[in-house]
Amino acid sequence: MQVRLKDPTDQAWVESVLRRYWGGSDIVVRGCVYKAADLPALIAGTQEGLCTFAIESDGMSAELVTINALVPAKGIGTALIGALKSHLAANGVRSLRASTTNDNVNALGFYQRRGFRIVAVLPGAVDQARMIKRSIPLVGYRGIEVHDELVLAFTIPKPR
Asked: Most Cβ neighbours (<10 Å): which of 107, 133, 139, 159?
């Protein structure tokens, strides 16, 4: 599947995906608010998937802010992660973090199958994020209350 960087003609679509799946462009990760619509992004296929990311000021680490495969079970998420790792490696970034909530066992498995490791569990982080972004639901997948954030990381090998 082809994955490319977003261009200005994608902006309205990116914003619509973020509204639909994330309740808007403001995404709270470990207490930081990212304006996901303004971040660099990768688009899979003909707008079948989207991920937004931020390269930290040190230039060595990055945060996967959002990821959405709009067509399930077609390898879109895998393609986005692979393309993101390649893009970051080519730009000298050496680590990629991703966060999920305690209820999202599907995301936890997805990241681990792609080489991410759990590096932190932040009890109450989602409760604190909810004070910033009130639209974060209290109950998530499978009726599980959402309170905690799990942080995963992947070490990006240097290009050969």
From this structure: 107
Cα separation, 131 vs 40, in Å, equals 26
What residue ranges do the domains of the chain occupy? 3-155
pLDDT per residue as tens digits for the range 71-104 = 988 999 999 999 999 999 999 999 999 999 999 9
Mean pLDDT for the stretch of residues 15-25:
95
Of 61, 66, 59, 25, the C-alpha closest to 42 is: 66
Task: Give Cα separations from 33 to 23, 70, 92, 129 (angstroms).
Answer: 14, 24, 24, 9
* Residue-level pLDDT at 158: 77
